[in-house]
Design goal:
alpha+beta; Arc Repressor Mutant, subunit A; three-stranded antiparallel sheet; eight-stranded mixed sheet; 5 helices; 11 strands; Immunoglobulin-like
Length: about 250
C-alpha cells in the first residue's frame, strides 16, 4: 500500500511539472526586448532612430519607410509587433508642425518648445507602436504679404536700375555722335594757339584767361597775344565780365 502511494505521488508530481513547463515555456523562450530611444523626424519626412535597445531592427538613420504623405498631411507609423518588457522614447517633429491625430502604445505626453513639438512615451510588457498624423508649417497670410512686398520692391529696384542704365547709354551715344572740333582742321596756328584751342575744346565752356594761363602754364603776355591772334582768325570769341575776360570757341 505504501509503494502504491509513492508511485501515485510521483505520477502527480510529473503531471504538475509538465503543466508548469507548458505554462512557463513561452515566457522563458521569448526574447526580452527593451528600448530607450530618440526619434527625430525632419521636414522632408526622413526618420532617424537612435538610442539603446536590444531589438534587431528598431535603430535606423535617415529612412522614409516610416512616413508617407497625402496632400499636406504626413503620417508617421512606427510599429513593432514584438513584446517589450519596457520602452521609453522621445520623438521630435519638424519645427512648426501641428498634430491632427496620435495613437501610441503605453503612455504619452505632448510638449512644445520654441515651435517644436515633442512626444514622450513609455510602456511595460507590450508592443511598441507610434502612429501620428501631422502637418508642417504653412505660410501665413502675413508671410505671404511680406513675400509679395519684397518681390514688388525688388522689381521696382530692377526697373529703376534699367531706366538709369538706358538713360546713361543714350546720353553717351548722343555725346559720341556730337561733332567735335578738330584743331588740325585749322591752318596757320602756332603751337601755343593749338594748345589753347585744344584746352577750350576739352572744356567746352567759357573760361578765363587766368585759367588758361594757369592750366597751360603759359606766361600772361603770351596768353593775351595768342588769344588776340585766335580772335582775329575768327576761331574764338572774348567777352569781358568785370575785370576778367571769358574765352570760348566761336560758334559757327
Amino acid at each position: 500500500m505504501g509503494l502504491k502511494n509513492i508511485y501515485y505521488n510521483i505520477f502527480l508530481f510529473s503531471i504538475l511539472l509538465i503543466f508548469i513547463t507548458i505554462i512557463l515555456l513561452p515566457s522563458t523562450t521569448a526574447q526580452n526586448y527593451y528600448a530607450d530611444i530618440i526619434i527625430e523626424v525632419d521636414s522632408s519626412g526622413f526618420v532617424t532612430i537612435d538610442g539603446v535597445t536590444n531589438h534587431p531592427d528598431i535603430l535606423i538613420k535617415d529612412t522614409e519607410i516610416y512616413t508617407s504623405k497625402k496632400q499636406s498631411y504626413w503620417l508617421l507609423n512606427i510599429t513593432k509587433e514584438d513584446i517589450f518588457s519596457d520602452f521609453v522614447y522621445d520623438l521630435s517633429l519638424p519645427k512648426g508642425s501641428s498634430i491632427n491625430y496620435i495613437k501610441s502604445s503605453g503612455f504619452i505626453s505632448i510638449e512644445e518648445n520654441e515651435g517644436n513639438l515633442f512626444v514622450r512615451g513609455f510602456g511595460i510588457n507590450e508592443t511598441f507602436s507610434v502612429l501620428i498624423q501631422y502637418q508642417t508649417e504653412k505660410l501665413t497670410e502675413d508671410k505671404i504679404i511680406d513675400l509679395d512686398l519684397i518681390f514688388i520692391l525688388l522689381m521696382v529696384v530692377i526697373i529703376i536700375s534699367i531706366i538709369i542704365l538706358v538713360v546713361f547709354v543714350i546720353k553717351e551715344k548722343i555725346k559720341d555722335e556730337q561733332p567735335k572740333s578738330n584743331v588740325n582742321e585749322f591752318k596757320g596756328l602756332n603751337q601755343r594757339q593749338e594748345e589753347i584751342m585744344n584746352f577750350l575744346i576739352d572744356k567746352n565752356i567759357a573760361v578765363t584767361q587766368t585759367e588758361i594761363q594757369r592750366e597751360l602754364n603759359i606766361p600772361k603776355a603770351a596768353v593775351s597775344r595768342n588769344i588776340r591772334g585766335l580772335e582775329l582768325k575768327g576761331l574764338i570769341e572774348k567777352e569781358q565780365i568785370g575785370m576778367s575776360n571769358l574765352i570760348r570757341i566761336k560758334k559757327s
